[in-house]
Amino acid sequence: MCSDPASRARAMKAVEAIFERYHLISRSQSFNGFDLHTMNNLRLLDASEKGTSTYEFLIDEQYTNLNGVMHGGAAGVIFDMCTTTALGPLARKGYWDFLGGVTRTLGLSYLRAVPVGTKVRLHSEVIQVGKTMAMIRGKMSSLDGKIVYCTCEHHKVAVPTQPAHLDFKVEWDQLWEKDSDVSGALTAKGGKAKL
């Protein structure tokens, strides 16, 4: 957990903004794709401005195979969404905004089967982020952290967010505008912008 409460609150708000915009867009389109259930059921526990996010999630029967354990493809969807949201605290208008580009590669390592009905903890950490590419690592474990079920390495490529998606405004957009104003003023005075 982040030691600075103001920093943690800001990071949490950045991640929550991704969910807010996602839900506004999905409702407007009557979207019912396979990532919707994931986005509806992730419970955000923590985030940091270093680019981390931590969730709790129930592996219900929608995510399992005939053997009664989590399907490998389901893990891919879950990790794709969770790791992407770790970019939220690092995002700025025009820089990894909204759902942070598109997946280049998503490599998963399955270590233990996850039985149906298991609540898991998902932790994601941005390892590298630049103007065009990012790499995020994820881990799915038991709630107490003693069992690691699977891990992932997610490489993303930045692409512009669809303008129609940014038409759906959330409270976080106002903070982006303030950051842009501060960054521009610092750069004009010879200071360094945040990103």
TrEMBL record:
SUPFAM superfamilies in alphabetical order: Thioesterase/thiol ester dehydrase-isomerase
A Gene Ontology molecular function term of the record: fatty acyl-CoA hydrolase activity
InterPro entries on file: ACOT13, HotDog_dom_sf, Thioestr_dom
Residues in coiled coil: none
UniProt domain Thioesterase: residue ranges: 67-146
Pfam families assigned to the protein according to its UniProt record, in alphabetical order: 4HBT
Similarity comment: Belongs to the thioesterase PaaI family.
Protein name per the record: Thioesterase family protein-like protein
Organism annotation: Amylocarpus encephaloides
Lineage: Eukaryota, Fungi, Dikarya, Ascomycota, Pezizomycotina
